[in-house]
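Not sure how to ask, but would you mind making up any protein sequence you like and the tokens describing how it folds?
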Amino acid sequence: MTAPTTPDPAVAAAEAELARLRAEAEAAEALLKAAQARAALAAAEAAAAKAKAGGAPAGEVPVVEPVEAVEPRPSAAAPVESPPAAAPVESPPAASVAGPLDADQVAAVVKGYAFEGLTVDVGALVNGDPVPDAQVRIPIAMMNRHGLVAGATGTGKTRTLQGLAEQLAAKGVPVFAADIKGDLSGVATPGESSDKLLARTRAIGQDWKPEASVTEYFALGGVGKGVPVRATVSGFGPLLLSKVLGLNETQESSLGLVFHYADKAGLALVDLSDLRAVLSFLTSDEGKPELKSLGGLSSATAGVILRELITFADQGADVFFGEPEFEVADFLRVAADGRGVISLLEVPGVIDKPALFSTFLMYLLAELFEILPEVGDADKPKLVFFFDEAHLLFKDASKEFLSAIVQTVRLIRSKGVGVFFVTQTPKDVPSDVLAQLGSRVQHALRAFTPDDAKALRATVGTYPKSGYDLERVLQELGTGEAIVTVMSEKGAPTPVAWTRLRAPQGLMSPTPEPQIHAAVKASPLLAKYGTAIDRESAREVLTARMNAATAADAAEQAALDKAKVDADLAKQQAAIDKQQATAERKAQQEYERLLKKTAGTSRTPRSGAAAKSPIEQVLNSKSTQTILNGVIRGIFGTGRR
């Protein structure tokens, strides 16, 4: 009996690998055939819808010709036999299969976006025509790895933002977004169907239906229709305020010293008038000693900051600062049915203050970082924050400000908050911030100038290697299409995919104003934030202090004036008394002279004493003395008035 031959391990491994590759090839071929069939069906449905709308003659349908099935590429690891050719199937016109990706690359995209957990569906792969079986998704667990939505004006960034926000909210994730142009409010109203919309959504495998999201409207400082969102100057901080005021680094550090002084002195900085009061006090005669104690803060610098604050307030910005200060935890709300609340910050009324708007959003993000606990990697974020018009935030920003942004973006991930920057070109966002982003949805870019072309090439260089000529594709993308790559559940980038994006289920135009007003009036937050509060703060404290100082100075001056008057009166009285004594002495001398002159020579001794003459008796009488005194005082003017 012959002993069984032991199989060669290398041969066994090669056969196993061969079987695996054959299975993958067959699966990819099946997926491609299914995608072709669905694309053909979508094209036929679109043509039928167009015919119904009068866009094509009745009865005219697209001619669909069979094409050869795409053969899977054999593996280089081992020679394999090609599988038997499949029967021809109906497929879309040649343009739909003549895309930039071959079958293996399409299969790689399908595999790269096949996630196990909850996802946000971005759209379907475009390979000439949409491939509905190749869905492009973002794992919700990876949404706190941040992202970027970029593209030229009119390429569909706002609709992308709306679609992502709707899906996140539907899966229980609260969303915050700034409504720059006012058209994001449509998320609160069910969308409107049309043949064109349905044909587009069927082609990408989207089961579209109109649906509204739970929406809360907010307005900065109450300038608008939403619930007022305010911040105190102390909470805003010197770094963000310096960015808004356009201060240089020296002035920024000086403003930080002013905040330090106010905190140390127990002066609450609630609104801009409080900060102006502190600066006015420090530059006054009474406050200059305090100013010197701060060190490094000159009166001239304090004066510059004060002038900038006055200009800033005159532009109407003071309405954004005050109390009650908004608690950012109110953005983390979930509706009773488990859906996340979409918080829309209305800013059309403040679009002429872009620096304030963008910096205020950064303040809200920094507040979230301060209050939220560490959560690590969660199944879904606590909040996704869409930072629209992000280029405004980084324009003319100081190094310290950029450093603060990078630190916040880097660390807030662990707090369960995802941040998506929405802007026109990736170059608007600093490289240190871009390095923190996990998902990218890049709409079309335009290259009309050499600088644009340079920016386009720089953008292309940041993408993983793909089967696309991205420098060309990024200029050929249609409205509602984008180049997408995201972070997989394993933390690796997914294949680059030319994607036709899903349509929002809400209204793609603004919600009517009566509905917005009704929603704001019904908001439970209106009672909490609707009425402004003006409590005692730095302005009142310093005003009272300066008034008290003024009163004390006035009292001291009055006492000095009174003492001076009393001294003058005493001096005058002494002069009068001296003059009166001199006059009386002279009168007495005159009296004695007259007495001697009238005295007789004869004397009549009486009782041992000389007898007084009649004249002496008359002159020494009280009546005569009174008359003489009156005469003398009249002559010399020594009588008291």
